[in-house]
Design brief:
The protein folds into two domains: 58-190, Chitinase A, domain 3 (Roll), CATH 3.10.50.40; 193-334, Chitinase A, domain 3. Helices cover 4% and strands 29% of the residues. The chain is built from three helices and 19 strands. It has helices at 3-8, 139-144, 269-272; strands at 63-64, 74-75, 86-91, 103-112, 117-120, 128-131, 153-158, 180-190, 201-202, 211-213, 221-223, 235-241, 250-260, 265-268, 281-285, 302-307, 310-311, 318-319, 322-334. The longest helix is centred in the N-terminal third of the chain and has 6 residues, at 3-8. The protein starts with a helix and ends in a 24-residue tail after the last strand. Residues 4-45 and 338-358 have low confidence and may be disordered. Keywords: Isomerase, Rotamase, Signal. Residues 1-19 form the signal peptide. It catalyses: [protein]-peptidylproline (omega=180) = [protein]-peptidylproline (omega=0). Residues 198-220, 337-358 are annotated as: Disordered.
Length: 358
């Protein structure tokens, strides 16, 4: 059994936006009634873009109000939308340049060209995390958000093929001919090879417990010596204390390596690699959940997580106890204090809410 199977089995709130990468569309959506130009034809089966297109004249693209971190208002021209993937850097940051496979911590607003806003993170008061460049978000994000400095505000115009394709996304009110416009603030980026702090303060090792190997700031492994007692409740033990903010209920981005109590591999985000869907993973820190003990642990820390064996409710199959070494990297979302037990933050690629797999 792999740790991520356990994680994905936990109850999470599931949203609908940015879901399902698609390709193929017939035409762009229509502009306002005052438009006099003819709609550009995208063809019956247009593949998604592999690069941002040459820029069209500025007066053929929307404008967006507000500074980085502020909820934007998008104003559309009277012309039809361009039939190509367009990117405008509204304000350029000074951080590292994003790469394929990175997890981006973002604020964003998405709106149908000339139509309604279908989602935004600003009103939720919480950032959202997405892994880009590996097919986990709509194609226009995979292409348009790579190669941009952290701290930038970016506007993307996505023809249907670079958004949801000819099927659209009915749950978000998006049709198969809609062009979508996003304003995205790139708050942070976490690379596929990220680990916890190399200078985290080492804590006394727990006695008669799973053993962890690997230098701080790099990949780690865990093993369970013969005779180690199995956990009866989920436990979290800090092995090296970081200096980041204390973890709150919500979602955190982590790297981990795990084994079962019988010595079987239970997965490692360090070794799978971004191209195979590996790299950092989001975990839910929820009241009553197996990772509740991460609450209060400083970001940047390395911890040992022990999860008791359990019986799969759907199959009745016994699942062994798990030991995992976990580096906690970034808090991606915080659960509001008014949320009920078991609810999750509104956006998570790992949980399939805002940016699920294609």
């Amino acid at each position: 059994m792999r740790l991520r199977v356990l994680v994905l089995a936990l109850p999470l709130a599931v949203g609908v936006l940015l879901a399902g990468c698609g390709s193929g569309s017939d035409t762009t959506s229509s502009p306002s009634a005052s438009a006099s130009t003819t709609a550009a034809t995208l063809g019956p089966t247009v593949p998604a873009a592999t690069a941002v297109a040459a820029a069209v004249p500025a007066d053929q693209l929307p404008t967006a109000s507000g500074a980085f971190g502020e909820k934007p208002t998008i104003t559309f021209p009277s012309s039809y939308p361009p039939p190509s993937l367009q990117r405008v850097i509204l304000s350029e940051g000074t951080g590292p340049v994003t790469q394929s496979g990175d997890w981006l911590i973002t604020n964003y607003l998405g709106q149908v060209w000339g139509g309604s806003v279908f989602d935004n993170s600003y009103d939720r008061g919480a950032t959202s995390a997405f892994q880009i460049g590996v097919g986990k978000v709509v194609p226009g994000w995979d292409v348009g958000l790579v190669g941009v400095p952290v701290g930038s505000r970016v506007m993307l115009s996505l023809p249907p093929a670079d958004g949801y394709g000819s099927k659209g996304n009915s749950s978000a009110g998006i049709t198969g001919t809609d062009t979508l416009v996003f304003v995205v603030d790139i708050v942070d980026a976490v690379g596929a090879a990220a680990s916890g702090q190399a200078d985290a303060e080492v804590q006394p090792a727990p006695a008669n417990a799973p053993q962890v190997s690997g230098d701080l700031g790099g990949p780690a492994t865990v093993s369970v010596p013969a005779g180690t007692p199995e956990p009866t409740t989920p436990t979290v033990t800090v092995l090296a204390k970081g200096t980041g903010a204390p973890i709150q209920l919500g979602q955190v981005l982590v790297q981990y390596s795990a084994v079962t109590w019988t010595g079987e591999d239970a997965g490692s985000t360090w070794t799978t690699g971004a191209a195979a869907g590996g790299g950092p993973q989001e975990l839910p820190v929820a009241t009553g959940g197996p990772f509740e003990g991460l609450t209060g642990v400083p970001l940047g820390s390395r911890v040992l997580v022990q999860i008791p064996g359990q019986t799969d409710a759907s199959t009745g199959q016994a699942q062994p106890a798990i030991a995992a070494v976990v580096d906690v990297l970034v808090q991606t979302t915080v659960t509001p204090a008014t949320a009920t037990s078991g609810s999750a933050a509104p956006s998570s690629a790992a949980s399939g809410s805002v940016a699920p797999t294609s």
